[in-house]
Amino acid sequence: MNEDVWALVHAERAALIEDLARLDDPQWERPSLCEGWTVHDVAAHLVDTARTTRLGFVGSMVRARFDFDRQNARGVARERGTSPKETLERLRQVAARKTGPPAPLDTRLVEEIVHGEDIRRPVGLSRSYPTQAVVRALRLQARTSASFGGAKERVAGIQLAPTDAALPIGEGPEVRGPALSLLLALSGRHEALDELEGPGLAALRTRD
Fold first, then answer.
1. Half-sphere exposure of residue 204: CA atoms within 13 angstroms, side-chain side
2. What is the DSSP track for 59-78?
3. Rounded to an integer, what distance in angstroms lies between the CA atom of residue 46 and that of residue 79?
4. H-only helix segments in 80-162
5. Are 181 and 161 within 8 A, CB to CB?
6. Which residues contact 181 (CB under 8 A, 6 or more apart)?
7. What is the pLDDT confidence band of residue 44, given thresholds at 50, 70 and 90?
8. Are the beta carbons of 173 and 158 closer than 8 angstroms?
9. pLDDT at residue 65 above 70?
């Protein structure tokens, strides 16, 4: 099972590396969907998370005084190369790694897919993600507390109904749309809310 997840993660890394290689330097400096970060920053963050080990994560959290934002900012600063070419090469070097923080393995899918869209959408690129990968990431976000980066509280009393996967999640007024759009919305990407519909959407919009 773990190997299946890692195969999906590695496929996403490879696809993103291919897309990043097509960008010019100005595109690397465009604002991403991840607030406060450029495309270049997000790529550096992905290098940092790919290098992360369980023990290293604990140590970095202690040094950041258990502030996730501070920890992430330090990781970006550490792994952001002096040029897009250098950062891209760093991403290539870590693409096949199988390490991560002390968290469910499916968090690696959330990381790769959501940040992949953080990068692709602002520069006009798109990707057809494997449904299995998106659904696994969506299910994890729906059951994970906000304190750990999920949206469990936000979707309480709402049913998520992916239109491209027969897999409703939760109970209550329905929110319909592509699984990818649901995943992005649950991950704080408000742009994706416009791609959803249903009687539960109004409640979802108000739960930031």
1. 33
2. HHHHHTTT-HHHHHHHHHHH
3. 9
4. 84-94, 107-120, 131-143
5. no
6. 192, 195, 196
7. very high
8. yes
9. no
**Percent residues over pLDDT 90 in the chain:** 83
Find all residues with CB under 8 Å of 158, minimum gap 6, and list them.
Answer: 170, 172, 173, 174, 175, 200, 203, 204
Distance CA 60, CA 3 (A): 27
Written as six digits, the tokens of 112 are 């790769």
Amino acid at the residue 137: A
End-to-end Cα, the chain, rounded Å: 33
Question: What is the pLDDT at residue 57?
Answer: 63
- Which residue, chain included where needed, has tokens 């408000």? 190
Collect all residues with Cβ–Cβ distance below 8 Å to 59 and sequence separation of at least 6.
Answer: none
Query: 141, 168 in Cβ contact below 8 A?
Result: no
CA distance 9 to 20: 16
**Res 2 pLDDT > 80:** no
Cβ burial of 193 (10 Å; 0-12, 13-18, 19+) is middle
What per-residue confidence (pLDDT) applies to 1? Answer: 60
The predicted-structure confidence for 103-162, as pLDDT tens digits, reads as follows 899 999 999 999 999 999 999 999 999 999 999 999 999 999 998 889 999 999 999 999
| Strand runs labelled E in 81-181 | 159-162, 174-177
